[in-house]
Design a protein that fits this description.
single chain, alpha/beta, Rossmann fold, five-stranded parallel beta sheet, 14% strand, globular
């Protein structure tokens, strides 16, 4: 893990440190019983979301041991090994069986999708009861729109921007889409750069409080 710090450029490290500091302040100020659910997403694949997620998880757990857990959003609702053994996992109701018909318009298909949604909500709730921070690695907007479906369930979304590839219009589109679906952008991390942060990125980071 220390090697990952060494491989992280100064601007990315500073952005992650600022996000962690903001999270710690927010957690202390709100004093809530449950944890914070955070999604990480980029506009296009290959921007380095998983790397930033791992870095944030490491920083948070260095501040307080075992306070953060990171997982792929695809695992939400389908696995339980991210939970401590004594954590109670919400069960499906009697209508939540995996008996979906190939026709998505059937009652069975709708029930299955609803059961899947309830599983994801229940799993996330259980995670938030066990950890202070839950970091979800979401697909890029160009691949899937899962971050939009999760947006209302999250306390914030962190956008990973790839230097020399992600454009300002793409960042703005992603931010608007997240907000349109009931989510909020917590911060932005510029990835894959070895030089100073460009002016437009400084402006964007200023808008989200970094």
């Amino acid at each position: 893990m220390e090697r990952e710090y060494l491989q992280t450029n100064p601007s990315q490290l500073a952005a992650c440190q600022a996000l962690v500091y903001s999270l710690l302040q927010r957690c202390d100020a709100e004093g809530r019983d449950q944890g914070f659910a955070l999604g990480l997403v980029s506009y296009h694949p290959g921007a380095g979301v998983s790397h930033v997620q791992s870095l944030l998880e490491q920083m948070l757990n260095e501040n307080e041991a075992n306070c953060a857990v990171a997982l792929d959003c695809e695992a939400l609702g389908s696995v339980k090994n991210t939970l401590p053994r004594d954590t109670k996992f919400p069960q499906r109701d009697s209508r939540g069986h995996d008996d979906a018909s190939p026709n998505g318009n059937t009652v069975a298909g709708r029930d299955s999708r609803l059961a899947r949604y309830r599983d994801r909500v229940g799993h996330l709730s259980a995670l938030l009861g066990a950890y202070r921070y839950v970091l979800l690695d979401c697909h890029s907007l160009k691949e899937k729109t899962d971050v939009l479906g999760l947006a209302p369930l999250l306390d914030g979304v962190i956008i990973v921007v790839e230097c020399n590839r992600t454009t300002t219009n793409q960042v703005d589109e992603l931010e608007r889409s997240i907000e349109r679906y009931g989510g909020s952008v917590l911060g932005t991390v510029l990835n894959k750069t070895t030089y100073a942060i460009p002016a437009w990125m400084n402006s964007l980071m200023g808008r989200v409080g970094l």
